[in-house]
Amino acid sequence: MKSKMGKKKKQKTPQPLEISLEETKELLKRIDEKKLEDKDFEKIKAFIKSFVFIQRLLERQKLSIKKLKNLFWGNTKTEKSKNILPLPETESNKAEDEGEGSGSGIEDPKKKKVEKKKKGHGKNGASAYVGAEVVYVSHKKLKAGQLCPDCKNAKIYKWYKDGIEIRVKGSAPLKATVYRLEKLRCALCGKIYTAELPEEVGEDKYDAEARSIISLLKYGSGFPYNRLENFQKALGVPVPASTQWDNVYPVFETAVHPYEVLVRQAAQGDLFHIDDTGIKILSIIKENKEKKAVEEGAADWEKRKATYTTGIISKVGDHVIVLYFSGRKYAIVTRESR
């Protein structure tokens, strides 16, 4: 229905129905017996208005379970602090109060909603810093059990939640510690006594963690040895490229057995993806110059001069195994080899 100005009349939200189940049964009974009372007409009228209103909301897809509950029973009361404790009067609170309408819980779809602040701030919480060192800081002036310095009427106790502050400091990927061992010399015989290192220091100059970091930087993040050498030198902890390789090689030896198991498992795959990329291998280039690779009775792949890195992706059930091989062999597929 339109007014004289050509605009649609705004549909009023019906008041919440305050009727119990027993009253509803009695009303239906009087309708069946055709013995309606004067008070029944108002309730029937409210039922019809609510039904028409709900039907139109459903057609416009503007109805939710929460709005439906509020329509019949009004705003449900909760024990949230915002409903019990009064909030300080602000502009946003005024806007929310003005936009509540008749208190039925059904918001007008045409009414502009007050924008609420989105949860989350895009920053990493303390739980994300799983590799960080945790330092507990006690209060310098107060302890649990002391009298509250403010009200001076009760004792303070340890709160269940600690304050959180995060500080991120820069350091070299490989850090070094210099131990200056005290030496004592006998004034008569000249024998020198040197202090012993703490047991937790260990005997190796580069520990397992340092070797793992070098391996991850090189083969996990593509950080070349010479670049790491220059970077460490600039930060005052020199680690030559040749020394890096000497420390990485023992790590490879410990990974040989898991690698062999992966090769065996990958061979049982249901689906393979392969690709070849040409590379230079200095030892093979040297062999090619000395013509050591070409010998009588050698296999075809041993006679090749070109070198490749072959990537193989094998899907074994729900798992995917990725392997890399470098050398004279390559994984090109021809019709004869199929």
Give a written overview of the molecule:
The protein has helices spanning 21-33, 38-59, 65-73, 81-84, 91-98, 208-220, 225-234, 241-254, 256-266, 282-290, 300-303; strands at 183-185, 192-194, 271-278, 308-316, 319-327. A three-stranded antiparallel β-sheet has the order 3-4-5, covered by helices on one side. The protein is an alpha+beta fold and 338 residues long. Among the domains are: 21-73, no CATH class; 204-254; 271-327, no CATH class. The two termini are 76 Å apart. β1 and β2 (192-194) form a beta hairpin. The chain contains eleven helices and five strands, in the order αααααββααααβααββ.
Which descriptors apply to this entry?
alpha+beta, three-stranded antiparallel β-sheet, 5 strands, flat, disordered N terminus, disordered C terminus
Present the secondary structure layout.
Blueprint: H1 21-33, H2 38-59, H3 65-73, H4 81-84, H5 91-98, E1 183-185, E2 192-194, H6 208-220, H7 225-234, H8 241-254, H9 256-266, E3 271-278, H10 282-290, H11 300-303, E4 308-316, E5 319-327
Antiparallel strand pairs: 1-2, 3-4, 4-5
Helix pairs in contact: 6-8, 7-8
